[in-house]
Specification:
The complex is a heterodimer. Chain A has 15 helices and two strands. Chain A is mostly helical. In chain A, helix 5 (105-122) runs parallel beside helix 7 (161-183) and helix 6 packs antiparallel against helix 11. The radius of gyration of chain A is 27 Å and the shape is globular. The two termini of chain A are 27 Å apart. The model of chain A is unreliable at 1-11 and 363-383 (pLDDT under 50). Chain B is an alpha/beta fold. Chain B folds into three domains: 7-236, 3-Layer(aba) Sandwich (Rossmann fold); 253-340 and 424-509, Rossmann fold (3-Layer(aba) Sandwich); 351-422, no CATH class. Chain B has a six-stranded mixed beta sheet, with helices on both faces. In chain B, strands 16-17-18-13-19-20 form a six-stranded mixed beta sheet, sandwiched between helices. In chain B, helix 14 (408-421) packs parallel to helix 15. Chains A and B meet through helix 1, strand 1, helix 9, helix 10 and helix 15 of A and strand 5, helix 10 and helix 11 of B.
Chain lengths: 383, 510
């Protein structure tokens, strides 16, 4: 009996909290939750800044803001970063919507970029009006080829696309590394300097403008493609339920291959914009991890191209701001990354609270049992 | 004998978001009785039982066991209080023997298989179970697995057993055996709660019936003094006529010929073995069998979703009498041949519909590809959606609501509505009323009947033999992938069909 009462004592409490699914949130409520999350993120990072560095957090945030909006030049450069990241995010989106985990955007971008660089280096003396369309086509085809290989293997033999696309990244990186040694300029420097030939023209002296416009158009097209085209519909059905797709007679293999073709082609376009439009050179770091960051951008925006502009902005803003505070406030370069991490943690974490609410245990729990057990410590629960 | 109730619920309430699953439920179960919990789907039966067995925690209310208040916040707590639940879906390790599964997870006891096997044997003898303790789970039939689940709970010393729809997977004969065992356990002083929505079973097994409606406990009645009609009325809240209006088939003509069909499952095991039958236009052909006897594969083979090893499927057009070979055609090719074959699959949200899409987008699943345009035309599906919502009384905030948010009955109305909208000549429906409330079920039966009267060849896979016998014209019985008989539904009996259901497996030796 003593034993039994001991276990009863342990069990007389309700669980500390329940997680309850939310239903029927009013339309503005998710935004309110997100706003609170951002506010909390700022408060936490301010406190951390004060404690760890002793600097004024407001100065820090204004410096962060400077990073993207400090001058027209910076603003344009931020937009250009944003355009490239957004372009790659657009590329992975149809694949992700189809639940095809294309984490090979990095490699597909590099393939497109390498093809572009090859054209720029090898087609000396060609008229620019011929070169640009040609480079575009070659880059798009290269990107698509890089994507179609895993797609075909997945469609016909059921290979794992995650591993396959990931491995293709390393192949692309090594290929670029090889060609950098072939084309290095000046000799012995280990990298390709600025390639003068075949650059996208600058508008009003700014080379960033064309890539920005191209990507803005691509956002609109992708939005329409996913939402209003038959292809977009098929992608959604295959992604949601392959069984349903079979049931209504969608050729799943066909859709997988076609969608990855689109995905890879847009990555190729991003590679082209990077090499011919903004960088004017190529290195194994040309994609700079954007192929992976794009995955986060796409997910955070729930695969909606319009929202993606916002999430991509957030990420670019944070990374540029981080760089800015590291230099102007002379902080250790990992500190801005800590701040970025905190802010992203809150923004991603608040999605949980949009879907679920947490309810604490109510106080009136189990008074009868407590009363029966006089030696219990839980008397305050009695009311 | 203890006069206090074995378990008593006082004012138990549970909500999920804005949905009230259980509201102020007061209920008691006595020692040595079988209490049936009756209610339509969504009436909160399972939620209530999950609170007793520690899966959910009530928002409000108290639970007393033998008069003492208890807090059950995990299945472990439930076991400590002698409560054991047998779920609908078995939770067993396939590669282990019965005994190994039974003692799995018991910590405060030495691992002694031999001794455990003896106790298992003793339990079997005491209550009349038939079980070989050394048999591995994967070699077992469904009813044996269920036995293991029950003994697992008894072995842990459960005094209160909760069975969630235990007869759904059993033949009538197996059900009778299970009921005998349950009665023996009751006579031994155990309290048994059985969740079900089959009225005749409630009447056959229980001592009292507690009826839930929309999360509330409406009444508890003594089984001896109640009737099917009264129970239905309590369950639905109004009088319902339980008659299916079966008309005589008019000029039934052969529509679909299936000859010597053989299919292999994923693991290379024969799932359809030399299946032959003819479906007639203007009649409802029922398909009866234990769950998983090849019903799904048969319909999927006809719909072009299942690879066929050998055999033929031929469709005869009602317009010109021309025969079309449907074998090895994809669903799209079948449609392009002009064969209007509609299929309501068993897995509604996983196959028939896309849960996250709204009703409009689900309407165009079959028709989106028509026309040469690169873009979708959402106008016709929108009209169709509005039509179906109006005519089949689909309860939904709007046509733009994702179907996942609808209740089971409304999901099914959307699916059946779409499949009927294409004016089919063959309509196949797999378990179309599973999980539906009584009113929705009868609406579906009436829709099928209306199709039959239009001359459609209706193929209906069902699980409730009473319904099959009332609704269908002929019933094809399938056992272990073989046709074990085709009977006239007007003259056959449940016992006859039950015997045929088990026949396929038993003559494997031939």
């Amino acid at each position: 009996m003593a034993n039994k009462s001991a276990t009863a004592e342990k069990k007389q409490r309700e669980p500390l909290f329940h997680i309850v699914k939310r239903d029927g949130l009013r339309p503005w409520e998710p935004y309110a939750i997100r706003a609170v999350a951002i506010l909390l993120a700022l408060i936490v990072s301010s406190l951390l800044t004060l404690i760890l560095t002793g600097k004024n957090p407001f100065l820090l945030f204004s410096a962060m803001f400077e990073g993207s909006f400090g001058s027209f030049r910076r603003f344009l450069s931020m937009l250009s970063d944003l355009a490239i990241l957004l372009c790659i995010s657009l590329a992975v989106t149809p694949a992700f919507k189809m639940r095809f985990w294309n984490i090979g955007a990095e490699g597909q971008v590099l393939a497109g970029g390498l093809a572009t660089a090859a054209c720029m280096i090898l087609m000396k003396g060609w008229p620019i009006a011929v070169m640009i369309p040609l480079m575009l086509i070659v880059a798009v085809v290269a990107g698509a080829l890089w994507a179609i290989l895993p797609a075909v293997c997945k469609a016909f033999w059921g290979t794992n696309e995650t591993l396959f696309t990931l491995m293709m990244n390393y192949v692309a990186i090594q290929l670029v590394r090889y060609f950098v040694t072939v084309w290095e300029n000046p000799k012995g420097s280990g990298h390709i300097g600025v390639i003068r030939n075949g650059q996208l023209p600058a508008i009003a002296g700014y080379s960033e403008i064309i890539p920005i416009l191209v990507v803005a158009t691509a956002v609109a097209l992708m939005y329409v493609y996913l939402k209003y085209s038959k292809h977009g519909y098929e992608i959604e059905v295959v992604g949601q339920s392959e069984n349903t797709a079979r049931y209504i007679g969608i050729n799943v293999k066909h859709v997988i291959i076609r969608t990855m073709l689109v995905s890879g082609a847009i990555c190729g376009l991003a590679g082209f914009l990077l090499v011919s439009g903004t960088d004017h050179t190529i290195s194994p770091d040309t994609a700079g991890g954007d192929g992976f960051t794009a995955i986060m951008v796409s997910w955070l925006a729930k695969f909606n191209p319009l929202y993606m502009a916002l999430t991509a902005f957030l990420i670019v803003f944070l990374s540029r701001g981080g760089g800015e505070i590291a230099t102007t406030m002379r902080l250790n370069s990992s500190f801005p990354e800590i701040l970025t991490g905190i802010i992203l943690f809150f923004i991603i974490g608040c999605e949980f609270f949009i879907h679920y609410s947490v309810r604490l245990r109510h106080k009136k729990a189990a008074p009868a049992e407590v009363a029966a057990d006089a030696d219990s410590e839980e008397k305050e629960d009695r009311e | 004998m203890n006069t206090l109730p074995a378990i008593e619920l006082c004012g138990v309430t549970k909500t999920f978001g804005s949905v009230i699953a259980n509201k102020d439920v007061n209920l008691d179960v006595r020692h040595g009785e079988i209490l049936a919990i009756l209610g339509e789907n969504g009436s909160g039966k399972t939620t209530l039982m999950n609170m007793i067995s520690g899966i959910y925690y009530p928002d409000e209310g108290k639970i007393f066991i033998d008069g003492e208040e208890v807090v059950i916040k995990s299945p472990k707590d439930a076991f400590a209080h002698g409560i054991g639940m047998i779920h609908q879906h078995f939770k067993l390790v396939d590669l282990f023997t019965a005994t190994e599964n039974i003692i799995l997870g018991i910590k405060d006891e030495k691992y002694n298989l031999k001794q455990a096997a003896e106790s298992v044997k003793a339990l079997c003898d005491r209550y009349g179970f038939e079980l070989d303790p050394k048999k591995k789970i994967y070699e077992m039939a469904v009813s044996e697995k269920q036995t293991v689940e029950i003994i697992k709970v008894l072995y842990r010393g459960a005094e209160i057993l909760i069975l969630d729809e235990p007869t759904a997977v059993l033949t009538p004969q197996e059900t009778r055996k299970l009921f005998d065992v349950l009665r023996k356990m009751r006579d031994d002083g155990k309290s048994i709660i059985i969740i079900t929505h089959k009225l005749h079973e409630v009447l056959a097994i229980s001592d009292r019936v507690a009826i839930l409606r929309k999360g509330e406990h409406v009444a508890t009645v003594d089984t001896a003094t109640t009737s099917e009609a009264e129970l239905t009325e309590l369950m639905v809240g109004k009088k319902v006529s339980l008659n299916i209006d079966r008309t005589e088939p008019r000029d039934a003509t052969p529509r679909l010929f299936v000859e010597g069909l053989n299919c292999l499952g994923h693991d290379g095991v024969k799932v359809l073995d030399n299946v032959s039958f003819t479906a007639l236009g203007g009649e409802i052909l029922g398909i009866a069998g234990i769950a998983g006897s090849g019903q799904r594969e048969l319909l999927e083979a006809i719909a072009g979703l299942q690879h066929i090893e050998s055999g033929t499927i031929t469709y005869r057009s009602p317009e010109d009498g021309e025969d079309t070979d449907l074998r090895d055609k994809t669903p799209l090719e079948i449609r392009e041949l002009g064969v209007r074959l509609s299929f309501v699959p068993e897995d509604r949200l996983g196959m028939g519909l896309v849960g996250d899409m709204d009703i409009v987008d689900n309407m165009m699943l079959r028709s989106y590809s028509y026309g040469k345009s690169f873009f979708l035309d959402r106008d016709p599906p929108k009209h169709l959606a509005e039509d179906i919502i109006a005519h089949l009384e689909v309860v939904t905030p709007s046509a733009a609501t994702p179907v996942r948010r609808l209740s089971g009955g409304n999901v099914q109305k959307v699916l059946v509505g779409r499949e009927i909208s294409s004016a089919p000549t063959v309509l196949m429906a797999a378990y179309p009323v599973r999980g539906l409330d009584i009113n929705s079920s009868y609406l579906i039966y009436n829709l099928l009947n209306a199709q039959k009267e239009k001359g459609v060849a209706v193929i209906f896979v069902g699980e409730d033999l009473d319904v099959l016998l009332e609704l269908c014209d002929r019933i094809l019985v399938i056992g272990s992938g073989r046709v074990t008989g085709i009977v006239d539904a007007r003259t056959s009996t449940k016992e006859e069909i039950g015997l045929l259901m088990t026949k396929g497996g038993s003559d494997d030796g031939e």
